[in-house]
Specification:
The protein has 187 residues and is of the alpha+beta class. The chain is 64% helix and 17% strand. The protein contains 4 helices and 7 strands. The protein has a 3-stranded antiparallel β-sheet. The protein has a two-stranded antiparallel ribbon with strand order 4-5. The chain has a two-stranded antiparallel sheet with strand order 6-7. The longest helix has 55 residues, at 132-186.
Amino acid sequence: MLRSVGSTPSIATTAPQHGIEVVDIAEHFVDQVSVAVADSALPETPFVVRELRLEWAAKRGLDIGVAATALFLLLPLMLVIAALVWAGDRKAPIFRHTRLGRDGRSFGCLKFRSMVADGEGVLAAHLAARAARPAAFWREAEAKLRKIREEKLREQKREERLEEIREAKLKAAREAKAKQAKAQQGA
C-alpha cells in the first residue's frame, strides 16, 4: 500500500493479525536526506558556474560560429567586391570608422567604400558651388510637405465633422422612434 507521509511517499504495510501499520523508516529517511542535500548543494539559478551564465556562453559561441562560417563562405564574394571597388579609382576599397554600441561603448567597424574617397570634402565643395540651387530645392520640398500635411489635416477634420453629423442624425432618429413607440403605447 502506498501512503504519503509528509511530502514524500513511503511504503507502509498493515499486519493482518493485529491491524498494525508498519512504515519503512530507512527509505523515508533516505528520501528526506537526499532532498535536503539536493536543496543545499545546487545553486538557486540553474546553469550558473562561477558567475558565468552557460546560456549566454552558448549563445555567444553560436554567434561566433555562425559569423565565422558566414565569413568563410562569403569571402570569395567579398574579394570580388573589393577588387571592383579598387578598380574604380585605385584607392582603398575598405574603410574603418567607429560606431557607438551598447552601453555607450564604441567599437571599430570595417565597411566597403561606396562613395568617393574624401566624400565629405567633395560634398562640401559641390554644395558651395551650387549653394542656391539646393537651398531652393529644399524650400520647395518643405513647402510641398507642409501642403500635404495641411491637406491631410483638413481631410481628417472634414471626416470628423461628417461623423459628428451622422451621429447626430442617428441620435435624432432614435429619439423619434422612442417618442413614436411611447405614443403608440399610450394610445
